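Lab meeting prep.
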Amino acid sequence: MTRGWRRGVLFAAGAALLAGPTALAFFSGGYFQGPRVWAGAAAWACVVVALVAGATPPRGRDAWLAIGGLGLVAGWTLLSILWAPLAGNAYGAGQIAVLYAGALLAATMILRGPVLPWVEPVLAAGTVIVVGYGLAGRLLPGLLHFARSISAEGRLEQPLTYWNAMGELAALGFVLCARLAGDDTRPRWLRSLAAAAIAPLGLGLYITFSRGALFACVAGLLALVVLAPRRRQLAALLLAVAAGVVASVAVAPFKGVSSLSGGLSTRESQGAIVLVLVVVIAVAAGVAQHLLIARVDDRGLALPRRAPLIVTGLIAVGLTLAIVVGSHESSGTSAVLSGGATRLTSLQSNRYDYWSVALRAFGTAPFHGIGAGGWSVDWLRWRSVTEGAQDAHSLELQTLAELGVVGAALLLSVLAGIGLAARRSLRLATASGAGRVAVTAGPIAALVTYLAHSPLDWDWQMPAVTLIATALAGAVIAAAEPAADDAQSASAMRGASRRKIHTANAHTAA
């Protein structure tokens, strides 16, 4: 295979890998078995294509800590069929883990070199498409008629069919677009488009009324300030926040859009008004980025030396306080919340009941867990509220309950490997000098967004969301080591140098 064909094949595989989450979003986010199986087959097909095209798996220790750890998570999940109360549930959980293992391996092999710069814009565009689709049914209700569930209570849920997952998807896109808008290495038209895209993403994030997604978005933006400590990036971030807030404030009075209240005629008129407002806000944000942000002095920010630790502490403390304070507002002691903006004024949730059952289940089988998919059985056994649930709404606690300390340790190895690769990619940027910002600043900030949300909901069971994080993690791992082409070039240069030395020695001897 010629070098041109090889690059073309890898670009095609990369396009499929990056567009996959967007396509899967229109099949209930890949939550059900059929789309999930096809997604897994596509992910592993990308691995095969990459190998045929000559791409090599990463060689770094941190890379294999993440990839190997995720592979072992998949194996341990499937092995738990032997002791899980429902073998079918355990097999489904194993399918999800195998999908992510293949996607991560493919991403580390493909999303490097000339493909790497496309990761952020393609994934960000995918979130805009998905959120925009969901908003379209509200802005044009006379033309588009989407399904709606009673449990959503008017919150934005389509096409993923779950409002909190839609909120997390919008938060990921928000952070990626904020980074793109302030990335001086990008074309100005792309930066302007990214700034304009913040308006629908901010609106979508708001009308999911997902408190966890809002927290995750703030966590990602705080991380972005530390990862890209430049004045122009900060100005773009503030513009993004302003555009998102203005879009949310603009839609708040129109309940026909924000919560699907009223008859069709009311929703049509309000949808038309909000559509005009969103377009105006988006255009204004794009123009502001093009005319104002681009002129901001791009000097570095004078952040404290321990700024990364400070931001990490703020995120951890914020999450802890929310959990502790919210534990006194459990659903059993207060009225049921509505699906509207009043949710944002309370920390009431059934999650504390879910988490309590997960910890109790862990106590019954701390080493190997109760088996993948077994939490739903224990929920029926020990629940304190009459509500059906399939997941513990926390990746970490559900892993601990269902896969025990073994599964938790394997999951921790995955996160540790990604973290070490992120640190190495940042060090490579620092070593290049001139205050260069790492090419992985956006992906790392978006990963922080995902990780901040993972203890609060079941993103793991929603492949359309987690595959975005998987692609970002693969890009970070790939960027932490020289690309295959670079390694081959370096090897060729070393070979040429040795030949020159041998020739010179021969001439000297003659």
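Slide two material, second protein:
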Amino acid sequence: MLRIHRRSTAPALIGVALLTALLLSSASATTPGRNGRIAFQAQTEDGLQIFTVRSNGKDLQQVTRVDGDATNVDWSPDGRRLAFSVNECSIAIIDADGSNFGLIAEDPDLCQTDPVFTADGQRLVYERYDPIADVDAIWSMKPDGSDKHLVTLAGGADANVSPDGTRVSFKASPFGALFVQNLDGSGLHQVSPDWDIAYKHDWAPDGSRIVISDNANPGPGEPVNIATIRPDGTGLQFLTHYEGGAQANVGSYSPDGQFIVFRLSVDGMYTLYRMRTDGSDLHAILGPSTFLPRHIDWGPAPVR
């Protein structure tokens, strides 16, 4: 099975102009709105599958039952559908209740993964790796899989677009730090310090800050903590201050911008938490248990 080649993109490549910037004019990682359910991937006897749960920890539901792994989930802006990766190299969409599953991007010669809805719900932005050409790029398509367009050759992992649609953020080399550039290809700058940040970051719904986790590959006894930073790289603020082997991996902001959801790992036990955006008012949603939620995304309440 072809697996995506995760690699950081050298800064020399990041200066390539974006070819289809207008496609992302309304894209964002967390859609502003009323808070809905929280989605994530977790291990089952049949591989990684997508689950959702209410923000009070009630009504845990398994949404997918794909053959293999379902990962990298993202909510649609209307809170009614989920986009996700299948076996790391294909993209699918499913209704939030588990119905109407459909593969929308599948090619045995490519790895297409990590889809994100635009804020109007009209397109998906995703990562596409071509192993023959060794090109990792960001593309866009309609939710039915049609009208595919190259967005940027900058590559990089975990691409997100600012809520106002003017900037792209992604994890790239050197160090695996967070970078931001304008949609016209200008203004490239490193936002986070020289850390290898953990996979998964998110823009605040008002675009004022980006939340990250500081350590992608902690050694034995090393902590992982959550911080926020302004998109210009100023104002770094740690929200958690765990020590030892405790690892806090961020998921996303809540759609109303009042909370951040994350996973805390301690001694093989995992707790899904929410906290205020200043790190206060910590509240457990699930756990502690051996049930491991990953790639956490807080969605909006469904539009009726």
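Talking points for slide two:
The radius of gyration is 18 Å.
The first strand starts at residue 35 and ends at 44.
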